[in-house]
From TrEMBL:
GO terms under cellular component: membrane
Signal sequence, renumbered to the chain: 1-16
Pfam family, one: 7tm_1
Protein name: G-protein coupled receptors family 1 profile domain-containing protein
Nucleotide-binding as UniProt keyword: no
Classification via InterPro entries: GPCR_Rhodpsn, GPCR_Rhodpsn_7TM
Species name: Capitella teleta
């Protein structure tokens, strides 16, 4: 498990490393800003839109769908195995709690995927699309506010 976490962090650092090459701090209008070459910015934003957002979203969508499918099959199986009579109410309550917990996991997975897409998608897609517009004669500045 530690090796997997280390690999994930290493991949994340590699994806973030173009920022160290492309961006440099300067002063612009009494603000800290990062001047970006328009061509490099388009490449960088395209990289972010595809590698940092689209590929992880597709992977998450596939894996979460597989997990949700497996959980829904296990819920059906648990409902079939649940005792029909009320003589063993302790077993029935445990099974009901188990089914409820599985449904909560399914809702949480859908919520996390929707939150990821809602938070990152519009920003990255808007940034990439605006980089393709023809106003390259203006300087671009990413203003950093603290």
């Amino acid at each position: 498990m530690k090796k997997i976490a280390a690999i994930i962090w290493l991949i994340s650092i590699c994806f973030a490393s173009p920022s160290l090459y492309l961006l440099r701090m300067t002063e612009h209008d009494h603000s800290c800003g990062i001047p970006i070459d328009p061509k490099m910015n388009t490449i960088f934003m395209g990289f972010n839109a595809v590698v940092v957002f689209s590929i992880p979203a597709i992977i998450l969508l596939f894996l979460y769908a597989k997990i949700i499918y497996t959980l829904s099959k296990s819920i059906v199986t648990a409902q079939r195995m649940r005792p029909a009579s009320s003589t063993n109410s302790g077993m029935k309550t445990t099974t009901t709690d188990d089914i409820r917990g599985r449904k909560q996991v399914m809702v949480a997975l859908v919520f996390m995927l929707a939150l990821f897409m809602f938070c990152w998608g519009p920003h990255l897609i808007y940034s990439f699309v605006t980089d393709l517009t023809p106003y390259r004669d203006q300087d671009r500045w990413l203003i950093v506010h603290y």
